[in-house]
Amino acid sequence: MAKTIEKLVGERDKKRQIHEAINKILKLEEDEIRNIGEYHKIFTKLEQARFMAGSRGGSILEHLTDDDLLYIIGIFKQSLPLVNRNIERMEGEVASLSELGGQQIAIQSRMSRNSEEISTKEEQLGAPALEEPGFWDFYKADKAPGIFKSLILAIFSSPESIEAAREKCSAYQQDVETRKGLEVGIQLLRSDNEKQQTRFKSNESEINQKAHIPKALDDLKAQKDSMEENVTVLEEQARSFTSTEQREGIKKVIAKEPREDEDLQFNMDI
After folding, report:
1. Which residue from 22, 11, 5 is spatially nearest to 230, judged by alpha carbons?
2. Which of 240, 258, 264, 211 is nearest to 82 (CA)?
3. pLDDT tens digit string along 185-194?
4. How far is CA 82 from CA 39, 85, 222, in A?
5. By C-alpha distance, which of 65, 67, 78, 66 is closest to 38?
6. What torsion do the CA atoms of 104, 106, 107, 110 make, to the nearest 10 degrees?
7. What b/e sequence results for 144-157 when a residue is b if at least 16 CB atoms lie within 10 Å of its CB, and e otherwise?
8. 247-251 contacts, C-beta under 8 A, 24 or more apart
9. Is the separation of the CB atoms in 226 and 28 below 8 Å?
10. What are the sequence ranges of the domains in the chain?
11. Which of 2, 67, 135, 250 is spaced 20 to 30 Å from 182 by Cα?
């Protein structure tokens, strides 16, 4: 039959250690770790004992039995893997935050280069365009004139003027093509900047959504360490006043209890 810790533990120092460990666990009752796995059962049991101690008087150890203590230890061990899985998931999210930060820097750098190149191309486009050659210049610049055109050119134009016309028309055509290339280049760069801006905003939104995770991760690690440290104290003390058969019996009780959907809990945002 289960007995209270107060009656089972005679040494004052051992009672003090158990009492301190319980109080430290109860300090986590408002923290996130309570909501992971079956840990809420630990806090519920300890809160009930604390309430009884407050309403009826006496120590909390007068309202906790050896079976209660073993139950708390068992529940802690049962749900610990789920805590670790949450920590691993959050560590992955923190790593992805770092990657997103690197992407943001790269995106900003790319957009800055694009903007500088756009400015350079616009400056080039702003330079005066070459004057369009007249009809006679284009006429003389024909590199494959027929017999009739060749005859006219031979009568009315010198070889020097024909060559000058060809150079003028060639320079003009090159200027036109260069300007078209600049305009296309500017359009492509602006289009790329729009895509990069969309990526930047998407990353920024994701970063904002996950901004709380690094602190939540640190908090959860600290909560886990505190739980682990203090449950270890309880386990060490419990060995002195519980039997192997009793401990195995509590394990079987815990194993038969319904459990929360761990996959659902694992996928919940912390």
Report:
1. 22
2. 264
3. 999 999 999 9
4. 10, 5, 15
5. 78
6. 160
7. ebeeeeeeebeeeb
8. 247/70, 250/67, 250/70, 250/71, 250/74, 251/74
9. yes
10. 5-95+221-267, 98-210
11. 135
